[in-house]
Hints:
Layout (H helix, E strand, L loop, with lengths): L1 E6 L6 H10 L4 E3 H8 L3 H11 L12 H8 L3 H25 L5 E5 L14 E6 L2 H12 L3 H8 L5 H6 L3 E4 L6 H14 L1
Parallel strand pairs: 1-3, 1-4, 2-3, 4-5
Amino acid sequence: xxxxxxxxxxxxxxxxxxxxxxxxxxxxxxxxxxxxxxxxxxxxxxxxxxxxxxxxxxxxxxxxxxxxxxxxxxxxxxxxxxxxxxxxxxxxxxxxxxxxxxxxxxxxxxxxxxxxxxxxxxxxxxxxxxxxxxxxxxxxxxxxxxxxxxxxxxxxxxxxxxxxxxxxxxxxxxxxxxxxxxxxxxxxxxxxxx
Length: 194
């Protein structure tokens, strides 16, 4: 089985592209979704409380992801701490998920911070989804209902798109000038021919 990673900076549209791959029958592991599910585990909540205090929890004692994002994206050391807690657990879940899909020709692993976490060597191929910074900013502001400064703080922790493009096997430009489905079908065909 070919292990393919799909990455791109926040707001690039990598989830949209991943869903297109999923519709054509390719299994997709959504790392961000898996990470959010970990916040319901008691052992993870205890670690988060230890490192970040009660301020990241809502009235229901569940992790408030907006509060957590406000804390970690404003402090590089705190971001490193949470990544050290969450990402090994997500990768463990990914390994289990791969076992379930080993009969497929290829699988996709969607990860926003693939290169930032130095995970690229775990994959056979990498797809990078790109979009101009202003378009990405607008998308995130609309999607998450946050101000520009918060989006820019998140973006500051991601590698420049040009670096991600230079390290990718395939690039999908999601700027509204190209149709996504034909590009996904083209990449799917190329991967299956490898």
